[in-house]
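Morning run. Coffee first, then this:
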Amino acid sequence: LKYQRMLERLEKENKELRKLVLQRDDKGIHQRKLKKSLIDMYSEVLDILSDYDASYNTQDHLPRVVVVGDQSAGKTSVLEMIAQARIFPRGSGEMMTRSPVKVTLSEGPHHVALFKDSSREFDLTKEEDLAALRNEIEIRMRSSVKEGCTVSTETISLSVKGPGLQRMVLVDLPGVISTVTSGMAPDTKETIFSISKAYMQNPNAIILCIQDGSVDAERSIVTDLVSQMDPQGKRTIFVLTKVDLAEKNVASPSRIQQIIEGKLFPMKALGYFAVVTGKGNSSESIESIKEYEEEFFQNSKLLKTCMLKAHQVTTKNLSLAVSDCFWKMVRESVEQQADAFKATRFNLETEWKNNYPRLRELDRNELFEKAKNEILDEVISLTQVTPKHWEEILQKTLWERVSTHVIENIYLPAAQTMNSGTFNTTVDIKLKQWTDKQLPNKAVEVAWETLQEEFSRFMTEQKGKEHDDIFDKLKQAVKEESIKRHKWNERAEDSLRVIQHNALEDRSISDKQQWDAAIHFMEETLQSRLKDTESVIEDMVGPDWKKRWLYWIGRTKEQNVRNETKNELEKLIKCDEEHAAYLANDEVTTVRKNLEARGITVDPCLIKDTWHQIYRRYFLKTALNHCNLCRRGFYYYQRHFVDSELECNDIVLFWRIQRMLAITANTLRQQLTNTEVRRLEKNVKEVLEDFAEDNEKKVKLLTGKRVQLAEDLSK
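And here it is:
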């Protein structure tokens, strides 16, 4: 007793001195950066591994102290005695621990608690902070439980620091139940068993098996479960709670001795402990419980009759024993576990070197950053496109879009008129209608499509050996989303309409070079149309004698009818070279009767349809001949065709169209380079920023073995 009192006095002095040292360090926290304590670092490693390995499989075999026991056996009370604070919510007989709670104990100058994902510190010396902490734990437990369930597999991480605390990591698990009561999910019992087994299966987990001493040992469920997980008892510590009640209620004290010596249960353990964790009053302080526990064991028959040994009693001795066992396990397993991870990493690195010897290991986020820079470089390349290139593409594409309208709706109807005055009037009216209603909108459409095509070309063109196809899906998604968000300036059409009006009203060709360019433009256009018309006629009448002889193919019955009709209609044009564009009814009747005389029955609609193509070919050939005659017409044009039989108003029309196309292309190019390219670049940046925050998007767009391997290496 003398030495025991001396030891207690020295321990108390040592505790006070350590508290002073820790407080001094705490005051100097701003002067020098304190290193993290070993247990805090270890706890962080466990958190990282739990994120890395959410399924809790064999990857993570690092030690934890797993606290298991039957419901209401006093698990939480034992944990609170070790943590020296009433930190857990409690209820009489009902299930309170609804999810695993990982508690990291470490020494510190102040008795505080904080959650892994929060910066708030709860002062465990203040009752209002303790109540707030208990409430927060209960809220977190309830929010982690999914609808239709009673318990959750999600772990709540809590750190507790304080003077004299033993450094270790404990996990409090939901209490094992024998029966599912009303209000519980049907699978609650099985879920608790699977959670407990998952934690206990870790070969380096220390199992703290809590047994209620106040109930019959035969009613225990947890001991069978523990003996299945650790049959040799090499990592199990058995704790008998409520020994004070057991001593009063049990007729034979030797029964408690049998439990403590491991003779009553089939399970084996490293050590056996007996503790008292309160008198049944939830408002008791930790200090009063400790005093009561010490007083009970000093007066207990169990110690006096040597049924229990002194080192097997009190939560203080239990705490020291668990801490020693925990750190012994940590020393043995950390190096082993690190080696396992090194081996995994070596295998991954070897696979990388064999598959991608010339590439750096870039995980998904790093690849996204690289792709982002490439995309932004490609967008900037749009500003480097020369004005000449823009204008050539715009002019060519715009003419492809509007040429059919110009020929069919403006030029051909005007060309059917009898004199130059009517021709010019018809052209002016139709050009104005076209400019008011369709042309500006069509021009903006062409400019927008040209910008999209150039943007797509820069985004998708392969850059030789440097091209990395891993970014193709991402680039395509960025391109599509940026184009979707881009809207052309609404005022562009109005300003364009005025410019196009002015361009088309101008009829003054200043020099012979422009005149020749207009003739060349008209010839190209008409030749293209003539070629299309010849092709249509060939399809109608079938192959000529040369093709029939060379390729051994014949005409169909309908093509023969069409061919005979064509021959009759060509006779009409030969007889009257200034024939109108449309056939009169009596001419249709004449052609039909001539064909019937040769035994060919023809529908009037077929005659008119064939006439349309025959006359069109004749007209286009005549117009091309007229172009040739107008090559020397610039002199007469300057004199307004006075005293000249040659009239070249159609050349002037094509010059007006050509000039309008050039001015429109120039205006659109200015809009593109000054405004739209910059706005598109801004859209691309916004899209990339949105994608950067969307992990699901990145996982979807950056895929493949290489990405997965880099992700595994990064982890």
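The domain at 62-335 is CATH 3.40.50.300 (Rossmann fold). Good start to the day.
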